[in-house]
Prior knowledge:
Elements: H1 2-18, H2 24-39, H3 56-68, H4 73-95, H5 100-110, H6 114-128, H7 134-152, H8 156-170, H9 177-185, H10 192-196, H11 200-225, H12 242-247, H13 253-269, H14 274-289, H15 293-326, H16 329-340, H17 349-360, H18 366-383, H19 388-396, H20 411-420, H21 424-448
Helix pairs in contact: 1-2, 1-16, 1-18, 2-15, 3-15, 4-14, 4-15, 5-6, 6-7, 6-8, 6-11, 7-8, 7-20, 8-11, 8-21, 9-18, 9-19, 11-21, 13-14, 15-18, 16-18, 17-19, 17-21, 18-19
Amino acid sequence: MLAALGFITVIAMLILIMTKKASPAVALIIVPLVTGIIACAFIVTDPEGAPGVVNFAANVKSLGGMIAGDDGLLSVAATGVMFIFSILFFGILTDAGTFRPIIGGITKLVGTNPILIAIGTSILAMIVHLDGSGAVTFLICVPPLVPLYDAVGMKRTTLATIVAMSAGTMNILPWGGPTLRAATALGFGDNPVAFFLPVLPAVLVGLALDVVLSALLGAREKARLGTVKLTSAEFKMAELTEEEKKLARPHLFVVNIILIIAAIVTLLFSGFAPAVVFMIFYVLATVINYPKVADTKARVDANAKSAIMMCSVLFAAGAFCGIMTGTGMITEMANTLVSIIPHSLGRFFPAIVGIIGMPASLLFDPDSFYYGVLPVLAQTAEGFGVAGADVGRAAILGQMTVGFPVSPLTPSTFLLVGLAGVDLGEHQKKTIPILWLVSLVMVAVAVVTRGIAL
Length: 454
């Protein structure tokens, strides 16, 4: 019965979120709470040494502890703190105009050669996507480059494909949404960097492949267009608004770049908790760029919305994981799946998840997959003697990372195609095969380098 309730919980949550009948936070809280109460009638307790006793009242009372305990809110607390301060850190640097000279420099460097333009687009998207926000990446990268692509005669679908591919691969970084969700769901919420590091070689190969594929797309455009001459007067970056001019700190560009590099190096190699790292570097970025208290408050207000939205979902996911784990529903679901999956396929479970991860982005939004489906897959893999973390690492190499910029379940996908002025169907038809190729190559590299153990 607990297995059936678990499947009902996951399916109901998926339906509510995917049909937009409820927000992710609401669905992640209310659905497991209802099924958790029902499950309390089937949880056998043994408080006084009497086996086989079901104490419904005591079980219901224990739900609060499940939600707030080590498998619940405590498991996501550090992740929530990290996300808040990472958003504020990168938001302040964006407000200070740190990325604007990079954009201008790339456009000047690449000139009118389609191959160089394509490569520059890829590198730009990687750099901008350091903050893990697809919407921010598309807003920064696409509008400045559309006039250049139009002037040269390159297809806008090429622009959308390259930006999607590069941002998607960068989205695997440990402060990106999918990796944070996977780490949280699998018990690495206090240190998502440790969860991520085994697949770092695969991600680096993926980023290199992005540049190679971008060059090939650029070469195809060059062959179609021939030689194009463009005067510098035909392309200019958008002028800053008065508000943006007030916030810009061009004299601090080098300092801010050093801050970004130092933050990434510290995250990867210091051993400090990611939440601590971003707290420290947020303070440094704030004190350096906006030392006045009033300015600091204004920057927090400007960047707080996205942080609060994400954290509300993270803590709701903590409630979901706490109830699903505490009631035993996840364990029973895994046992059921283990009983029906051929044992001969068990050791290849991570590879299977990695292969279907990218196309699964078209079916599952990140909250539904990582908080609802992944824990079940991980438990199932453990039933075959495979570490659940390997399943999670395989999943992040495609599911809503590389795959997010083509998914109709991702609002930023529509922002990308809207800013680029391309049809969603055309974008998907051209981009999905390329994204899947990048995902499969990363999975293969991860298997070879033992980032994913089979």
